[in-house]
Structure formats: structure tokens, C-alpha cells
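for the recovery benchmark. C-alpha cells below, seq after
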């Protein structure tokens, strides 16, 4: 976001990050997936990177749910990041309402890596414990003095797969306080 009112360590940024963290935790995420593409697939192009993420998550859903995955769909929320030292995109994915245990999910992501010819360290899945998601997921979100932030970095599974939204929970409850702004 190119805005002269933007202060990366400001109170508005802290408030926005805390609000997003609270919103993420309302979903009670079970798994936290980090997607860091191999060097030859890293890109500064968000659209291309999102297409690669789409391919990974689609393969995951097809493998774990079978050919009628879209009827059962496992929802998730994605935070896109490009890091402070790099401008290549990577992702943090919060998976919730998943009927499968951690062992099954981890095993399927290993199969995804193999089938898409990706190194196993590209897809790192972890369990989310009772204390919920910490601010790590929203650490790159910066807001201006009016609480505007780059909402293009937040991608729901419905958006990624172009599915109808099942729940109004994809709109933060504090919409009046934290306003989304697209570049």
C-alpha cells in the first residue's frame, strides 16, 4: 500500500493485526500450513503465485476428499506474504472444520508434494493448539491512520476455488472499525 499515512509500527497496525488474529481464531483453526515455493517456482507476481497455491490446495482436497471434494470442501483462510527481505510470495494457510486428524492431513500433504514434484519442505503443516493462532499470520499487515489495509492478502477457500460463501463469518465482526482497502 503506497500511502503517506502508513506507519508500520503504529497503533492502527497493531490494532488491525490484533483484530485479524481474533477473527482467525473465531474459526478455531486446526492446522497451520506454510507454503514456501521452491526457488524455481518463486515469483513476485501475486496472481501467478495464487494460481500455484490453487493447484496445491485443489490437489490436497481431491486427495483427501475424493472426486466429489466440492460437495464436502474443507474450508481455509490464507494469508499471502512476501517477506521483508524478499518480494517472492509465500503463504500461511489456516485450515478449519477439518474432519481428518493431523496424521492424515500431514500424509496427504506429503502425497501432494510427491504428485506435484515439490520438495517435502515446501509444504509444512502443523497443528494449532488450544491457544489459537498467534499474530505470526498477520505480521506483514500494515494499516494507515484510517485502519485501511491490503485485504488482497487474505484469501478464503471460497475465493480461491470460486465457491459460494457458506458463512458470513468471512466478514470480520469489527468491519466498522477495520475497513478493508484494496490497492
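predicted aa per position
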Amino acid at each position: 500500500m503506497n500511502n503517506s499515512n502508513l506507519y508500520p509500527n503504529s497503533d492502527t497496525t497493531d490494532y488491525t493485526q490484533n483484530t485479524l488474529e481474533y477473527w482467525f481464531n473465531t474459526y478455531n483453526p486446526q492446522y497451520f500450513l506454510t507454503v514456501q515455493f521452491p526457488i524455481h517456482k518463486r515469483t513476485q507476481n501475486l496472481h501467478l503465485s495464487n494460481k500455484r497455491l490453487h493447484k496445491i490446495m485443489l490437489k490436497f482436497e481431491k486427495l483427501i476428499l475424493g472426486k466429489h471434494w466440492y460437495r464436502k470442501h474443507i474450508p481455509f483462510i490464507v494469508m499471502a506474504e512476501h517477506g521483508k527481505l524478499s518480494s517472492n510470495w509465500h503463504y500461511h494457510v489456516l485450515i478449519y472444520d477439518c474432519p481428518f486428524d493431523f496424521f492424515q492431513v500431514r500424509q496427504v500433504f506429503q502425497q501432494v508434494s510427491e504428485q506435484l514434484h515439490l520438495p517435502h519442505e515446501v509444504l509444512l503443516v502443523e497443528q494449532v493448539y488450544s491457544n489459537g493462532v498467534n499474530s505470526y499470520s498477520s505480521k506483514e499487515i500494515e494499516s494507515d491512520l484510517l485502519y485501511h489495509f491490503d485485504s488482497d492478502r487474505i484469501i478464503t477457500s471460497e475465493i480461491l476455488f470460486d465457491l459460494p460463501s457458506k458463512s458470513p463469518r468471512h466478514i470480520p465482526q469489527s468491519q466498522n472499525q477495520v475497513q478493508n482497502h484494496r490497492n
